[in-house]
Structure formats: structure tokens, C-alpha cells
Amino acid sequence: MSELRRLLFKRYDSHHSRVNLNMDPRGMSNIILGELELTYGHLLDGLSAGSKVLDMGCGAGFLLYWLSECKKLSVMGVDISSSQIESVRSNVSSAEVYCADGLEFTRGYRDHFDAIFCFDVLEHLEDEDSCLHWIQAARKALRPGGFLVCRVPNAAHLTGAYMRYNDLTHRRSFTGLSLLQLMEAGRMTGCRSLPVRVPHLKGKIRLWLESTLHRVLFRLSCHPPEDIFTYNVSAVGFRRD
Fold first, then answer.
1. How far apart are CA 106 and CA 137, in angstroms?
2. pLDDT digits (tens, 9 = 90+) for 60-105
3. What is d(CA 167, CA 170) in angstroms, rounded to the nearest whole number?
4. Which stretches of the chain are DSSP H helices?
5. For the chain, which domains are there?
6. Which of 16, 239, 233 is nearest to 140 (CA)?
């Protein structure tokens, strides 16, 4: 790792606070919590109480907070940023968290987790092989039947270039198609995109307008296959064996 990247990750909370108005997961609005529930909650419905869930690159702990609050799960998080892990320990005391490299940490588990979430991580990794290694490590750490959810910046969105370059630790963006391509290369099966769902009318209107605008532009550009146009794109894949 370069000296710059080491320094950036060490104090990543300072940059994170500049691009996020709220750094305390406990202050998440009901709108955001509702979006998480509608977009990802159905995946958790099949998990029994006590199921083991890993947040692979947990950052400031927003996803951990939701997982800890809405389901009776055994929740664990790992992140390379010591400053962010300190924040998680203060704000999400019910989660078991570790300051470590997410890849090496996950490689220490085999057939252990019922679900793994990897949000806003793959864009930071050094190269494409590293992205593949994270998917492969997650698959091995899952129990058969378990699932992996990845979320990344969406290059198909009009602000994709901004998302790519607003953070010096970013190395790439994805589209819905390339995220599925990566997960399938890592031997995840049944992979599919997860469209963002929102709990309020204003958000539904915004998403419809956003999608309509992008679909028109893509058709004019002769690029019709993409169908996810939110600024982030998520996908789920399963370990079947």
C-alpha cells in the first residue's frame, strides 16, 4: 500500500465527515432505515434468530446499526480504519467489531456466516484481482445457502464520474452489469441486482424521474441493457454448495 493510501485510510473518518452530514448511525432517519429495510430486508427474512452476519468493511457502522436493530442476528463487522472502528464501538455497542484488513479477516473463516454484506468497499481496492479475492473469500466464509450482498458506486448514473473522483481512495466504479460479472467470476450463483426501494412518495417520484431520464439517455446512446440507474448499485449472490 502506498504511503498516501495508508494515511488516507488511517484517518478516513475526516474525509467521510466532509461528504456525510451525519456520522452517528443512531441518528439515521426513518427514511434511510426504511430504504434499507425495503431494499435488503427481504433477504434477512429467511434467516433465523442468531444467524451470523458479517459486514465486510463496516465503515462508520450504519449498516451494522440497522442489522443490529431490526433483526435478532449475531452481527460482526470489520474495517481497516481504526478511527471508524472506534466510532462503531461507541455507537453500535451490540456489534462485535474488529480493526483489520477485511480480506485477511474473512479468510480466517470457513463455512461460518449465513450472510455477508460488502458495502462501498470494492471501489477502494487496489486492483481488479483484489476485488475478485474479496468475493472469493466471502464465498468460502459463507455457509452453503448463505448470501453475499455487494454495493458499489454506479458508473451508469450521471454523477458516476463525481462518485469516482470525489475520494482519492477510489480506484473504479461499476455498473449493474459489471457487478454481476464480478460476482459470477467469484463463483456466486443466482446473482441479481437489487433495485433501491424507498418508503415515501417523494422518494418514489424522484426514483421514477431519475430512471426515466437515464433510460432515455441510454436509448439515445444505443446502450439499452442497463436497468439500474441509482447512484449506487447493489447485487446479491448465493453460495449453493
1. 6
2. 899 999 998 877 899 999 998 888 888 888 888 888 999 999 999 9
3. 6
4. 3-10, 12-19, 30-44, 62-70, 82-91, 102-107, 128-141, 160-165, 176-185, 201-220
5. 3-198+231-238 (3.40.50.150)
6. 239
